[in-house]
Amino acid sequence: MDHTLWYKDAVFYEVYVRAFHDSDNDGHGDLRGMIEKLDYVKELGVDCLWLLPIYPSPLKDDGYDISNFYDVHPTYGTLDDFEELLEEAHKRGLRVIMDLVLNHTSNMHPWFRAARANRNSIFRDYYVWSDSSLKYRDARIIFLDTEESNWGWDKKSEQYYWHRFYASQPDLNYDNPAVQAEMLKVMSFWLDLGVDGFRADAVPYLFEREGTGCENLPETHAYLKEIRKFINERYPGRILLAEANQWPEDIIPYFGDGGDEFHMGFHFPIMPRIFMSIRKEHRTQLVWIMGRTPALTETNQWCMFLRNHDELTLEMVTEEEREWMWQEFAPDPRMRLNLGIRRRLAPLLDNDHRKIMLANSLLFSLPGSPVIYYGDEIGMGDNISLHDRNGVRTPMQWDDSSSAGFSKAPSQSVYLPIIDDDTYGRKQVNVKSQQDNPYSLWHSVRNMIHARKKYPAFGRGDFQWIDCENEAIAAYVRTYEDQVIYVFNNMSASEHVISIPMQDIPGPLTDILTGKDYYIQDQTLTLKMSPRQYLWLV
Ligand code: NOJ
Questions:
Q1: Cβ distance 72 to 86 under 8 Å?
Q2: Are residues 356 and 350 in contact, defined by beta-carbon separation less than 8 angstroms?
Q3: Mean pLDDT confidence for 384-412
């Protein structure tokens, strides 16, 4: 097996360092706290951590507003701590990728300060300026709930500056070769420290051109190919993961021609359809989106996810579907944000263990590498009374002590309130009690991860639907070399008996997850599937 393709077999774990574990009891998670919890992550079965931005930042967008690309936010620790984290992670066979924010900086970044202070500064051209706010008017607004325009007025220098996200995040000007070179330098800095790659933020928006939506432009792809070339030549084995919230046909170009752009890309459009299909109790939406998902080349891979640190985005659904999703999953308007839903996995699935595990069965068995969002492995709740996306970024709940084992700081100094409602509070939901209970969600997730890891077919195999008349069943086969795995998911809340024609084979098929055997008789596999049951048969 080709081990340079490690990311195809890997299980990823997305961590917000500030939320994970606080080692110095100032109320904010930090890198040393992360080091203390590496064994936990390893035990869960994770192969690669993805760290949300840890750079110095005024934290107007939780670190996606960077004020220095070459350091660590002092609240999270020091560069030495970061190096130790890498060392300790690598010792345990864990890899670490980090967020790389190419598109913009904070308005507090020295480049932007210099740029606005003096129109003749060499940094002026690091950003995109205009006398008119009517330029590039075909570009949509992404943060619809807060921003009225992609142009912000700079009083100081009396021109508009371009920003695709918050007004406090001016976009960098990629038409300037100096900016292109700077960002390669930034990458080198972290790669030299030993990071295993980057989750590249907001990649569709790097360039602007009049008369276009300023997304997915050829110029953007050309620069991204430069980045890949740079990695291939100087840091082989490190990976690039694209955050491009686009339809499959628009994501495909991010994998490049013959694999010369990103190694991996998030599969945004399938994510809401997993929720839809569970709610509608049939596979139709999944079949539709898989039909629109082109096969990738051998070195490329989808990154699959259910939830992340942002709102559950509904950009990749029709307007009608969006309305339906909002009604079903976000009945309270406070649960909605921009074009999405700001809730966590467990509350979205009614805190129903079977539904959550069914969603995980899809996450872990459809083509791609899965990403788990911290806390979802124990079914953490959310807090919709908090601002923006903070409600899904609350402290990790380690035990039932007053600060949930997250920190020893008094609760008023913890960066966000720990969830404390009757269903998802630290007493009801925490790592310790779930580790002690073999029937907990944590154990189910852990078993699933460990089962998946024994079979490369999940990460590398071909995918094909199994012909099954009953639409409540999502059944497919994953094949890699001589490995064949039949996956059956009963999407519905009722029992279903299905019969699948199959060639007789001498021995039984065995469920990887439970060890139970299933026999093919008279060239037919007959399965009685209980509500929301899933089977992974080898
Ligand atoms: C995407 C990130 O996931 C989100 O959290 C952030 O606000 C925007 N990019 C802007 O960087």
A1: no
A2: no
A3: 96
Confidence label for 411 from pLDDT (cuts 50, 70 and 90): confident
By most ligand atoms within 8 Å of CB, the mutation choice from 18, 60, 64 for ligand 1 is 64
Helices and strands in the chain: count of H runs, count of E runs:
17, 23
Side chain identity at residue 481, one-letter code:
E
Q: Where are the beta strands (DSSP E) in 274-396?
A: 301-305, 312-313, 336-337, 340-341, 369-373
CA 439 to ligand 1 centroid distance, Å: 36
Tokens of 403: 């600060």
In 3D, which of 228, 246, 283 has the Cα closest to residue 472?
Answer: 283
Q: Whose CA is nearest to atom 2 of ligand 1?
A: 201
The β-bridge partners of 161 are: 129, 152
Please write the tens of the pLDDT for every residue from 217-253.
999 999 999 999 999 999 999 999 999 999 988 899 9
Q: How far apart are CA 174 and CA 415, in angstroms?
A: 35
Q: Which residue is associated with the tokens 């139970």? A: 516
Phi and psi at residue 252, to the nearest 5°:
-50, -45
Q: What number does the ligand 1 atom closest to the CA of 104 have?
A: 11
Residue 345 Cα, ligand 1 centroid: separation in angstroms?
A: 19
Q: 21-49 in b/e burial notation, b at 16+ Cβ within 10 A?
A: bbbebebbbbbbbbbebbebbeebbbbbb
- Across-strand partners of 501? 524
Structure tokens at 210: 């009049």
**Cβ(171) – ligand 1 distance below 6 Å:** no
Ligand 1 contact, 64 CB (< 6 A)? yes
Substitution site in 98, 201, 241 for ligand 1 pocket (most atoms within 8 Å of beta carbon)? 201
Cβ of 205 closer than 6 Å to ligand 1, yes or no, is no
**Residue 208 beta carbon below 6 angstroms from any ligand 1 atom:** no
**pLDDT one-digit tens code per residue, 454-499:** 999 999 999 999 999 999 999 999 999 999 999 999 999 999 999 9
In the structure, what pLDDT confidence band is assigned to residue 2 with cuts at 50, 70 and 90?
A: confident
Are 12 and 50 contacting, i.e. CB atoms less than 8 angstroms apart? yes
Positions annotated as catalytic residues are 201, 243
Q: Which positions ≥6 away from 239 have C-beta within 8 Å?
A: 7, 97, 196, 197, 198, 263, 264
State residue 526's pLDDT score: 97
Distance 63 CA to ligand 1 centre (A): 9
Atom 4 (ligand 1): residue with closest C-alpha?
A: 310
The response to whether residue 65 sits with its C-beta less than 6 Å from ligand 1 reads no
Which protein residue has the closest C-alpha to ligand 1 atom 3?
310
The SS3 assignment for 12 reads strand
Tell me the two tokens of residue 134. 């009517």
Amino acid at 52: L
Positions of E strands within 253-398: 264-266, 301-305, 312-313, 336-337, 340-341, 369-373
pTM over 0.70: yes
Kindly give the interhelix angle for 270-280 and 284-291, rounded to the nearest 10 degrees: 160
